[in-house]
Amino acid sequence: MQNTTDVTTVAHVIQLSVAPVFLLTGIGAILNVITSRLARIVDRSRALGNPNGQIKPAHREELPLLTRRMRWINWAVSLCTISALLVCIVIAALFLGAVTSLDPSRTVSLLFILTMFALIAGLLCLLREIFLATGNLGLRITN
Predict the structure, then answer these.
(1) b/e per residue, 9-40, with b = 16+ CB within 10 A?
(2) How far is CA 25 from the centre of its chain?
(3) For all residues of the chain together, what is the average pLDDT?
(4) Virtual CA dihedral for 61, 62, 64, 65, nearest 10 degrees?
(5) Where are the alpha helices (DSSP H) in the chain?
(6) Residues 6+ positions from 10 with CB-CB distance below 8 Å
(7) Residue 64 contacts residue 18 (beta carbons within 8 Å)
């Protein structure tokens, strides 16, 4: 027969972990957007090149910009993925704290703060890439 206190403790930890799980879902959606942008940059880079390896003079200006955009998007993917991993560690720490009867509050707090910093940095990288992409619109219109 199970102890009622153990079931109550696990139920409470599950309630506490619901908010980080929703955060994890949001980060997943953001990663989906970011990887879609990365795919478009890669497709555009491939479209500018040709099988002979020669690049048209009109496209020479755009390739360095695509490289910069790809670098920012790679940072955004990395930082948002780190953020998602930290959320997973937060959830695991909550359950480990319940099972081992240790107080994980400091660890969880630190991990959550790191999660937010990584997410903020990832979103700032995404924003920078968007600025680079929209700044490039003028280049395409004039050519």
Answers:
(1) eeeebeebbeebeebbeebeebbeebeebbee
(2) 11
(3) 86
(4) 120
(5) 4-48, 62-100, 105-135, 137-142
(6) 98
(7) no
**79 Cβ partners below 8 Å, 6+ apart?**
118, 119, 121, 122, 125
Q: Which residue has the tokens 């970011």?
A: 34
How far, in Å, CA of 51 to CA of 53, rounded?
5
What whole-number distance in Å separates Cα of residue 73 and Cα of residue 131?
A: 12
Q: Would you state the pLDDT for residue 140?
A: 54
Tell me the pTM. Answer: 0.82
Burial class, 74, CB count within 10 angstroms (exposed 0-12 / middle 13-18 / buried 19+) = middle
pLDDT surpasses 70 at 12: yes
All structural domains of the chain with their residue ranges = 4-142
State pLDDT tens for residues 30-89. 999 999 999 999 998 888 876 666 666 667 778 888 999 999 999 999 999 999 999 999
pLDDT higher at 51 or 122: 122
What is the residue type of 53? Answer: G
